[in-house]
Give the backbone structure.
Amino acid sequence: MKLVPVLNFDGNCSEAVAFYTKVFDAKEVKIQTYGDNIEYFKKEHIEISSKWEDKIMHASITLPDDASHIFLHDKMENGVFHSGGDTVIALEFATQEELDQIYHRLKEGGTIETPIQKMFWHAMYAVVIDKFKRRWVLNCQIVSID
């Protein structure tokens, strides 16, 4: 079993896909728009306005480990949208260098809630709220907290 975070957006998913692809050095990105599936929506009697045909119905970003993914989509125009909300995405890193790299990329246009610091549970830790209002908890276990 794998856990895959799904991030929803209010019409700006294309921008988010580009941002997260860069942040995580994505190996593969797959995108499907509402317009790509217009025949399905017609068959199901679901009306999609022309301004939403180029919005993202589903995007999948494959991370460098080939096992992890992030799914993203634009919430349908008549759907309820909640940006970020109470959702927190936690990432566990193998090295502090990985943590540092992702931290600096996520903070572009965002805010630092907790700067990178050594924690009592023997980890380097940070919390960043990115420019899309998503809260990311970054953690890297270390041997020593000298």
In short: The chain has two domains: 1-81, 83-146. The beta strands are 6-9, 28-33, 56-62, 69-74, 88-92, 111-119, 123-129, 135-141. The longest helix spans residues 13-23. The mean pLDDT is 88.
